Amino acid sequence: MAPVRIFAQALEEGWLDGRLARAAEGAWGRVATRRLVKTLTWRDGARVVAIGGATLGGSGKTPLAIACARAFAEGGARVALVGHAYRGRAGLHGPARVVTPADRVGDVGDEALACVRALPAVPVVVAPTRQAALDLALTLADVAILDGVHQTSPRAWLALLAVDAISPWGAGACPPCGDLRAPREELLHLADRVVPIAGISRGAFVDGHLVPWGVLRQKSVGLVTALARPTRVLATLRAHAVEPRLVRTFSDHGRFRVPFAAGIDLWLTTSKCRESLMRSAREGVALGVIDYELALPCETWKGPLDPYPRGVLPS
Fold first, then answer.
1. Where are the alpha helices (DSSP H) in 83-229?
2. From residue 132, how far is each of 35, 90, 93, 239 by CA, in Å?
């Protein structure tokens, strides 16, 4: 296992403790709190929705951003999603751009491409800065969904905090003692609503066709991921009585290839990881993308321009 992945697992499971670790946690919390609020400007009449995650990865903020964008679009609003170009050159230099399915993962990042595939009718914008991306997004839309921004200054029209439905606060501490992005009280203070994230799955898409779990149980499968908390993906497989013969995990947003292994009929992965894998899969290696639909709390959406979740509210 790569050193980055080992450290990420240590944070997720709260391995580190002791006086020095606690002192470092306090310092992290103070710095992280200052970075939670992004100073941005936007035109009069526009509405900005900020969506952050409680942990350093695996909270479900991007699925929530996709669900928000889809709900606004289905309600008739003009909406755009402002993404982030993790590991993409657009995150370092170049003008703001609208992402297309033909873009390369090395240019726009894996999550932006996954958003485009999930939202064919919604512009997904990335840029070297959030401000540049927001400026372009609001030439195309009246509602901008900011994926990965906890709160803005001036305050966003709506700020949602995504938390995992099973483990909402991760290891319960900031690095190096845990994987909380910032102290819990600060995260709650900045959020208008807290949304517990849980997913449902029907199987996996292979060559564009959904293969149900009952069929997958009859195959020899492997699991390959490059994301935070891969154990949750493994738990999804096991919940459907699918036990992979091999599991390969890489650091979040890492570059990697589909490993070759004799006896594996199908390698399963996530929609985000797919973007890297499809460009490096060996010929003849079958790849399946696990189906994932967000199971939001009942009556989450009150209307197309008033999406106040009625799930877990901040105390």
1. 105-108, 110-118, 130-140, 184-190, 213-216
2. 18, 11, 11, 42
Q: Which range among 53-67, 142-156, 238-252, 297-311 has the greatest average pLDDT?
A: 142-156
Q: How does strand 143-147 pair with strand 124-126?
A: unpaired
- Between residues 177 and 281, the one the model is more confident about: 177
Q: Which residue has the higher pLDDT, 58 or 187?
A: 187
With beta carbons less than 8 A apart as the criterion, state whether 162 and 60 touch.
yes
- Give the separation between CA 20 and CA 143, rounded to whole angstroms: 45
Which of the following CATH numbers is that of domain 36-173+183-198: 3.40.50, 2.40.50, 3.90.1200, 2.50.20? 3.40.50
CA distance 91 to 190: 25
Q: What is the DSSP letter of 258?
A: P
| pLDDT single digits (tens) 275-295 | 766 555 555 578 899 988 876
The H-assigned helical ranges of 75-129 are 105-108, 110-118
The residue to which tokens 């982030």 are assigned: 84
Q: In the structure encoding, which two tokens stand for residue 103, read together?
A: 């873009």
Domain chopping of the chain, boundaries: 3-33, 36-173+183-198, 200-294
CA–CA distances in Å: residue 97 to residues 91, 102, 126, 140, 290: 11, 13, 6, 12, 28
From CA 131, how far away is CA 110, in angstroms rounded?
21
